[in-house]
User: Which sequence fits this backbone?
């Protein structure tokens, strides 16, 4: 470890690093290898530690930039806002928590969804943001993801979704649980239309989100060393009094136990997603191209994917 | 109320004991006790009405968890004939916390899916205290697909604290098992009636809980997290479960007001355990009525209506 006494106690604490995505200042300590690294170096490298490849939590905007072509992302429903339907109060009201999180993040809720391009593929893309109430799923998260999937189905587009979540948003009571059914039902229709859905599981993806759309991918990708599971490790420990093995519920554990298809380094993520889409959309593009060719239309990629998939998806049902 | 009484049930138990003593004392004597017996019976009724019209959400939860409350299998045995259990997920094991099988309610043939709790240590260990493993959800899906294939309507009876939070469940991916059920239940081409009969424990309940109708017994509850779990997170102490139960709005009345359940099935005064026969009858009537409504639709209508129902959950502003 580099010896930089200047930083004193504050920077030595991994908690300070964990607490926020990117602390202010020029340097920070990697919670994984404990190296002190130049912040700019991390920022420019996809929020990955240059020394040990630790994947830092990534800001929402950076997540979009990681996969989506510059300028191509058109966000949907960005003003959709949660309501405190239960008037939930426990150590502060849900309404005040929402307000504080909106102020903190500059977003209305924990997910951003829209349409954009990944290389030559037009896709529907969403990103969940753990810094907003732990990316918990309430009505807004459920509705935005459902709409995004439905729009994907209607337009014949693949869905790529960067997942992160602490689970259902209990401040919204049973309504939040029902979002699991809602998003999953939308995915049933997207699957019937023979369109690919690729969830990318990031640290952490757990509980209600894991028990719905996060595990329903045609291919499930995870980032390295992400916590991924149904029940939290502490709950499991308390309930069963079992000692949990090292690496339990980490990406590598889930790969070994057969849940996820692959672990992909952030730097390789776009390449892998493009390759998957090249394969899974190949037949559809070819079909659309020949249809477009028959009508004498331009054979560029955009027109191929713009062929209304609504009809074909309905006939597939 | 045989054997076990909740703290708020005690006044009724005491009165019943008194009534019993009186009857015994009167046996073989010429003394006319009719008036006194009637007085106590009236008092019991009044006391019950007073207690049960003012239950707190936490008391409701306790009734839902009452150890003598009828469990899903009790309902199956009471309302149907020829229940034939079908076992196993064909992948790993036969979970005992979720059972399923074919049966007949009057003339109506159905596929039952039901969670199962135990009455004593042995039976509780066998069914893991009503907390399913992934195998339970996968078995349920297998049986529901079977029902879909052969045009049998599905009745799902739910009384579970939740899916089991253990290492084995994680290793065999309980989250995935639940998720797949949510997706597939939205497209199974036969009517699905879901009834929360006791505890509706979060993901563990919804994992067999997607359907055309969501019914709930009067004293059951359905929640995204257990009151204790919520209290541990938000109040840092499980002892605040009563506060959490109130805040989460989990009783049949609250859920009706929120528009999340379709119908509340009435229970006898004091809860289903007081007069199980009444609860059985009410459940049977409700299931048959709803199945008959649903069977009037063709498959396309059924699935479209189901999708729209699931689709409508959620409140937000734009």
Assistant:
């Amino acid at each position: 470890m580099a010896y930089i006494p200047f930083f004193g106690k504050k920077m030595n604490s991994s908690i300070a690093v964990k607490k926020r995505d990117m602390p202010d200042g020029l340097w920070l300590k990697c919670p994984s290898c404990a190296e002190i690294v130049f912040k700019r170096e991390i920022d420019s490298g996809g929020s990955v530690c240059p020394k040990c490849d630790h994947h830092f939590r990534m800001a929402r905007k950076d997540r979009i930039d990681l996969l989506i072509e510059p300028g191509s992302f058109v966000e949907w429903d960005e003003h959709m806002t949660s309501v405190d339907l239960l008037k939930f109060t426990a150590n502060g009201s849900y309404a005040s928590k929402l307000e504080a999180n909106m102020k903190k993040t500059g977003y209305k809720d924990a997910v951003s969804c829209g349409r954009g391009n990944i290389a030559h593929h037009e896709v529907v893309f969403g990103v969940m943001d753990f810094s907003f109430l732990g990316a918990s799923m309430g009505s807004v998260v459920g509705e935005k993801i459902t709409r995004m999937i439905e729009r994907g189905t209607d337009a014949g587009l693949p869905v790529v979704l960067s997942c992160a979540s602490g689970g259902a948003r209990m401040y919204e009571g049973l309504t939040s649980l029902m979002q699991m059914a809602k998003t999953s039902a939308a995915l049933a229709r997207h699957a019937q239309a023979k369109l690919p859905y690729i969830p990318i599981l990031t640290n952490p993806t757990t509980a209600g989100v894991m028990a719905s759309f996060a595990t329903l991918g045609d291919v499930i990708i995870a980032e390295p060393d992400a916590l991924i599971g149904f029940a939290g490790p502490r709950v499991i420990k308390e309930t069963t009094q079992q000692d949990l093995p090292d690496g339990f519920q980490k990406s590598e554990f889930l790969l070994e136990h057969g849940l996820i298809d692959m672990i992909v380094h952030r730097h390789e993520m776009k390449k892998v997603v493009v390759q998957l889409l090249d394969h899974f959309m190949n037949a559809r593009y070819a079909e659309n191209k020949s249809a477009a060719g028959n009508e004498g239309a331009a054979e560029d990629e955009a027109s191929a994917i713009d062929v209304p998939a609504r009809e074909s998806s309905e006939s597939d049902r | 109320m045989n054997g076990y009484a909740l703290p708020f049930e005690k006044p009724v138990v005491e009165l019943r004991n008194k009534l019993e003593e009186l009857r015994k004392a009167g046996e073989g004597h010429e003394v006319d006790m009719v008036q006194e017996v009637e007085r106590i019976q009236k008092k019991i009724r009044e006391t019950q009405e007073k207690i049960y019209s003012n239950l707190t959400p936490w008391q409701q939860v306790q009734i839902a968890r009452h150890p003598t409350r009828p469990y899903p299998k009790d309902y199956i045995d009471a309302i149907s004939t020829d229940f034939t259990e079908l076992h196993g997920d064909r992948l790993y094991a036969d979970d005992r916390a979720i059972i399923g099988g074919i049966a007949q309610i009057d003339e109506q043939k159905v596929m039952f899916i039901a969670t199962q709790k135990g009455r004593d240590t042995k039976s509780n260990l066998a069914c893991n205290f009503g907390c399913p493993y992934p195998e339970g959800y996968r078995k349920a899906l297998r049986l529901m697909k079977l029902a879909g294939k052969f045009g049998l309507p599905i009745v799902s009876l739910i009384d579970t604290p939740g899916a089991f939070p253990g290492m084995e469940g994680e290793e065999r991916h309980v989250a995935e098992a639940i998720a797949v059920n949510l997706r597939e239940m939205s497209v199974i081409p036969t009517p699905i009636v879901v009834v929360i009969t006791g505890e509706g424990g979060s993901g563990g309940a919804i994992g067999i809980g997607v359907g055309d109708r969501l019914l709930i017994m009067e004293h059951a509850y359905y929640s995204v997290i257990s009151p204790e779990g919520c209290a541990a997170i938000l109040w840092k102490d499980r002892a605040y479960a009563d506060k959490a139960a109130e805040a989460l709005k989990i009783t049949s009345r609250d859920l009706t007001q929120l528009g999340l359940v379709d119908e509340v099935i009435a229970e006898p005064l004091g809860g289903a355990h007081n007069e199980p026969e009444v609860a059985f009858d009410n459940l049977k009537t409700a299931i048959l009525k709803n199945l008959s409504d649903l069977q009037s639709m063709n498959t396309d209508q059924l699935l479209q209506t189901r999708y729209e129902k699931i689709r409508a959950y959620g409140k937000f502003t734009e």
